[in-house]
Specification:
heterodimer, A: about 375 residues, mainly beta, Porin, 16-stranded antiparallel beta barrel, two-stranded antiparallel sheet, disordered N terminus, B: about 80 residues, mainly alpha, 2 helices, about 0% strand
């Protein structure tokens, strides 16, 4: 029986590999066409490059510390063709909820990701093709994505849409079994300028996740026995968004966002945020933002289980809870550049404090630098 | 949210959106404040991506737009 299961698993894995391989190959062909088309016009206009470097530090109430340096490079070959590449690392120390059960002294992990996208502009239409690969202990993810946007009505209206597919492969550590998960997501937005000082955006997001979706590390009590959770293998997600940006007197700016989320696991959530920014000088902007999130738990969530439930979970992301996020951000663009860097260099300092009703707290600090490397 | 409610909400959004497109025509020389970074919906994509990544590891309703989840270390 064990060999039957293994054979079935290998067959399923081969089907996944063929499916995803075909999708990635098709995407690569299209990306290559874009790239060749872009290099043809390399000499038509001067190049522009920007380099972004950010360092994020995440410390939470479980004792987990994550240090995440990221680098992104943008290069505009012409005014119609651009390339973006990025690389980042999550260096994770100490034990998270998932690891603490087996590694009481803590477990370290690293996650590396690399991504790239090509942007092409055709008149009022922009098209992007991109991809990302990430790898960490017991988890790999590959994503391909595309998006399109078009401005209308003398650039007062923008319609945009996009699609992404992710192939995720969690390993059921400490077992060697590797599971598969496919996630499709799509979105559409409409952005409209209402006046010289008001912009609004409405959007819709649709997602479908198929395959293994349990958390292989978190355990819940079933008839008094600690068991790894079992989740359904299909999930359909919807979200509606509404966003506002309003310029106010005295160089003040208001931002307000709302997102209504629902899925067929009955995780329904309302998330809203409101923020104020003040431009002290064209080169110094200070912002404060408050975000509130409230969600209903999945239909199969219970603090503990009895009998023979089909599905059960210990994943805190499926619990009912509320959370608050406080953000403070300072952005500086010195007139004459920053230290040895040329004019146009910008510096961002951001601190966030997150607190949820599941007794989880986290502080997140970000230091970012964006440098123009080459001017047109 | 029930399907009919959701469909009605989407239709309402489309109606509102369609109505909004006829609201105003702001000329290019009137867009000074609209061009400020504070008026953008995602002024710093790197910050937005990082926020999406860590929020997806804490909230079941977050993520979903091509964002990749994490394994053991993040959860």
């Amino acid at each position: 029986m064990g060999s039957d299961c293994r054979a079935a698993g290998v067959a399923a894995s081969n089907r996944w590999t063929a499916l995803v391989g075909g999708a990635v190959a098709a995407w690569a062909v299209v990306a290559a066409i874009f790239a060749v088309n872009g290099t043809r016009s390399l000499a038509q206009a001067p190049e522009a490059q920007t380099l972004g470097v950010q360092i994020h530090t995440f410390v939470d109430s479980r004792g987990v510390t994550v240090l995440s340096p990221t680098v992104d490079l943008g290069r505009d070959f012409t005014d119609r063709t651009g390339l973006r590449v990025g690389f980042g690392v999550d260096a994770i120390t100490a034990a998270s909820d998932s690891c603490a059960r087996c590694h009481a002294e803590g477990a370290t992990n690293t996650r590396e990701f690399v991504n790239a996208s090509i942007l092409k502009t055709y008149g009022d239409t922009k098209v992007t093709l991109g991809g990302e690969y990430s790898h960490e202990n017991f988890y790999q993810a590959t994503t391909v994505s595309t998006s399109i946007s078009r401005t209308l009505n003398q650039a007062n209206t923008t319609v945009a849409g996009g699609y992404a597919f992710s192939w995720n492969r969690p390993q059921l550590h400490p077992d060697e079994i590797v599971e598969n998960q496919g996630a499709h997501s799509a979105y559409a937005t409409l952005t409209q300028t209402l006046s010289k000082s008001t912009v609004v955006q409405v959007g819709y997001e649709l997602g479908s996740i198929l395959g293994y979706q349990s958390n292989p590390y978190l355990r819940t009590s079933v008839d008094g026995v600690k068991m790894v959770g079992v989740h359904p293998d299909a999930r359909l997600r919807h979200a509606l968004t509404a966003r506002l940006r309003q310029a106010l007197p005295a160089d003040m700016y208001l931002e307000a966002d709302f997102r209504r989320y629902s899925d067929d696991w009955d995780v329904n959530a309302n998330t809203w945020s409101v923020g104020l920014s003040h431009e002290f000088d064209p080169r110094v902007t200070l912002s404060g933002i408050y975000r509130r999130h409230g969600q209903q738990g999945a239909y199969f969530y219970q603090p503990s289980y009895t009998g023979s439930p089909e599905f059960y979970t210990a994943d805190f992301r499926l619990f009912p809870f509320d959370s608050s996020l406080y953000t403070g951000r300072l952005m500086i663009t010195p007139k004459d550049g920053l230290m040895m860097f040329r004019p146009g260099t910008s510096l961002v300092l951001q601190y966030e404090f997150y607190k949820s009703t599941t007794n989880f707290e986290a502080g997140i600090f970000t230091l970012g630098l964006r440098l123009p490397l080459k001017h047109p | 949210m029930k399907t009919t409610t959701r469909v009605m909400f989407v239709l309402a959004l489309v109606a509102v959106g369609t109505g909004l497109t006829g609201c105003a025509t702001v000329q290019p020389w009137e867009r000074g404040r609209l061009a400020k970074s504070c008026m953008q919906f995602s002024p710093d994509p790197a910050l937005t991506a990082f926020a999406g990544h860590w929020q997806e590891s804490r909230e079941g309703a977050a993520g979903g737009l091509g964002l990749q989840g994490g394994g053991c270390g993040c959860k």
